[in-house]
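Handout, page 2. Input:
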Amino acid sequence: MALAGLGAITYGWGAVRIRRAGRARLDRAIGPTRSDDERPVARLHAFPPRYPWLGPAVGLSTIAAVALVLAPPFALGAGALLGTLAYLAERAIAESRAGRIEQQLANALDLVVASIQAGGSLMRALEAALEEATDPLRPFLRDLVTRLQLGDAPDAVLRDFAARVPIETFRLFSITLAVHWEIGGSLASTLAVVARTVRDRAELSRRLRAQSAEAYFSVTVVMLLVYGVGLLMWRANPDPVVQFFLSPVGAELTGAVVLLQAVGLIWMSRISGVEY
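Output:
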């Protein structure tokens, strides 16, 4: 069990380092995440909202509650499993929201490209996209357009926009506009490529989720089968089963099995998930 836990921690730390390195390259391209008008990014509401404390809070609460009536191994196993399920649920909701706002960004970019190709200016194209935008993209796009109209520095506005929606496609969009404001160029064709990239990313994410759904279903069935077999054994011959669970060895083995189920779920999520 210790080796499995150490392997999971090592794998997770490696994935975090790779993700941080990728985001650092984007940060170097777009500049520091602090605007020139002295508005700290920390005060802005990022989208999608994340709750990293949810999984640990559920896990610790479960451990404290179960430890009052059952042995510590049961409490540790139950806390790890329920905390993992809460973490996965929060992550799935965040991925769904991120996919939705990315799809809206692609639609807005299509409208901007069409308006520019028709002879309109960039600001007029952004205003037209704002008129057609819906939540959750609308408030962020409104803030972008309003601040540009008020004369804020474009690079500061775009840095704030990328910081408020920390998704790679939004950073790509911000970098594209920032480069255009600095050196000019054919914006319509560039934004068309960005829109196609956003759609390709969304399509790839949907395919990955569809392919991983089968694996998640299989794992869920196997997990439920374990509990089902245990319930049938208890119904058929309850005394030996109760004695096994109440013994120190039985409690430790049961807690280890539940803990390994939590480790397996986290491992699968890291392999099949899409980072935003």
